Every structure is written in C-alpha cells, then in structure tokens.
Amino acid sequence: MNLETPALIIEEGQVRRNIAKMAGIAAACGVALRPHAKTHKLPEIARLQIGAGSKGITTAKLAEAEIMAEQGIDDIFIAYPIVTEAKLERLATLSRRINVIAGVDSLEGATAMNETALRRGVPLQVRLEVDLGFGRTGVPYDHALELAAAIAKLEGLQFRGIYTFRGFFMNGAPTLELEAAGLEEGRLMVELAERMRAAGLEVRDVSVGSTPTAEYAARVPGVTEVRPGTYVYYDRMQAVLGSCTLDECAAAVRVTVVSRPEPGRLVVDGGSKTFATDVGPGAPPLHLIGYGHILEEPDAVLERVSEEHGMVRVPEASPLRVGDVLHIIPNHICSTVNLHSRVYLQDGGQMRELPVAARGAIT
C-alpha cells in the first residue's frame, strides 16, 4: 500500500497479544473484563476483545455506544453521566435494543433518568460513579451510600452497583506505585459495596481498574469487573508507568521528514493535528521528554508541535534526511486515535485501512 503520511499504523498481531494478556489476567482473577472502547473506537477491535472473553465493552459517550450497537455489540456500559432530555430519550431507545448500563453520579441526574424510564416504559440500569480522589465526575466516597440508597428507591431504575475511575492516582496525586494504588482502589470499593449491602441495597457490580491498575485491583476479593482501555494498543505513557514495554506498544504514527533546516533539528509532517498533546512533557511523576518515542532514532526528541509541524531535536551526527520515514509511539494513544479518521492495520506484509467509526462521537 502506497501510504501517505502522517498515518496511524496498528500492528494487528501485537493487538491480539495485548488482548489475550489482559483477558488472561481477568480470567485468572475470576473477574469480568469490560474494556473501554474509547482507545480504539473500532467495532472490529471490540469484537476481538469479546471473542477473547470480554463480557462486553465500556464507552465514554452515548454516541460511541450507539455506533458500537449498530455494529452488533450488544452489552455496553456507558461510564458517563447522561442528564439531558434528548440524550435520555436516546438511552431509552438504545436500552430496547441491547443490554446497556449507564453511569450516574447525582440525584438530579438519576431523577431525570427515572422520569424518562417511567415515561417510556423502559427500566434503565444504572451504576453509581464514586470519586476516589481523581477529581472528575463521581460522588465523593463518603456520600456514596446515601446517594445509592436514594437512587435505589427510584422505580424506573435498576440499581446495579458502583464503579470508579482512578487511573494511576493515590492520595490525591499521580503515583508510580501501581500495585499499591490498584489494591487500595479495589479495597475501598469493596468496602463501600459491603456497607451498601449491610444497609439493604443490592450491589451486583463493583467495577474498577484502568490499564495501569487493573491487574492489581482485580485481585481484591469482591471486585467483579475491570475496565482497562489503553492496554489494547498501549502507549509511551503506559511504558514509562511500567504497565508495558515499548515492544508491546501496538500503535505508532508514521511521519515523513519534510525539512532539516539545521544539523540539530528536523521537521516532520505531524503536529498537534496528528499527536495528542494532553499528556505533554515534564509533568510528574512521568517526566516525559517530548511528545513521543521515535523508534528509528531513540535519542531524538519530538520537542515541539504546531498544527502541521513536528519539530524534532536530533544529534547533529544523525543520518536522517528529508524524505526519510519515521515511526513515533505517542505519549497518549487514546486522544491520538481521535485525531485520525482512519487507521492502518498491519499484519506481516499485509496492510488494510479501517475508518475510525466512533471518532468524534462526543455526544
């Protein structure tokens, strides 16, 4: 295939190995695996995950779930509060077609959802999101029992349990102590579930675990499900965290050197429209250098990006020249995928193009 750059290349064999690895971890721990599809946004990859043993998938937005359902994925958890009338109507319609669970984190949101469920005659399944210190959505841990009890009384809703997203955070800050963070995440959620059950609530789901913590949180007795996402491709951030090796990273952006204006600097044809910049250089605890790892020149640094240009610092003796092709593992693959309308799956000498079906599905 005569491939123009920049282009996002996915090594299909490595994807399959990554899928099998996480499926094995979940099976060994006796927990369900419900991977987050926000990383790949591809129904084909979701089907590979389900074929390897995943219970279903997780999405961030309702639109992602709708796209996946259109392609035959029939068990989806939407890990995001759905509160507007139009979206609640869409949720009710989707719930007639497939098994779908939605996230809630407020009584106002749950009440609106309950009104839609009763009006449409469609019971809606919900999980309560709990904030363990990440500071995003989620009810504060100490208020979760009270809110769960109120939600469980709403006649149109079926309260399924609790979930959290904590990432590699512990004690309110990023950490490289992934095992400790994962075990604490699982323990806190199981203890909360036990208090809810003691108060008379039925808690079937205790869902935890991102890519860096899933294998550890899954070990905690009482955890029922883990929801890693990035593991399917991995990225430079996960490699620095220790979740994987660079060799396990299945995705790289192929770029071309378009300029070498001086010996220590060259320019590639991928900038902020090509590489995600949400995980940038320098921030603790990762202290990443640049916006990606350049496979052909590990000592080079993608140190600055504008929309269409990537400025790379190279050793002055580097043999790279205009027209050379490079492959760069991005810092954060999830946001990078969302910048590309298509990806190229490579398997040995074969390459095929796939549209990123759920790209930009933000509603």
TrEMBL record:
Keywords of the record? Lyase
Give GO terms for biological process: D-serine catabolic process
Protein's name according to its UniProt entry: Alanine racemase
State the source organism's domain of life.
Bacteria
Q: Which residues form the D-serine dehydratase-like domain?
A: 250-347
From what organism does this protein derive? Paenibacillus sabuli
Zinc as UniProt keyword: no
List the InterPro entries hit by this protein, alphabetically.
Ala_racemase_N, D-amino_acid_metab_enzyme, D-ser_dehydrat-like_dom, D-ser_dehydrat-like_sf, PLP-binding_barrel
Q: Which Gene Ontology molecular function entries are recorded, alphabetically?
A: D-serine ammonia-lyase activity
The family line of this record is: Belongs to the DSD1 family.
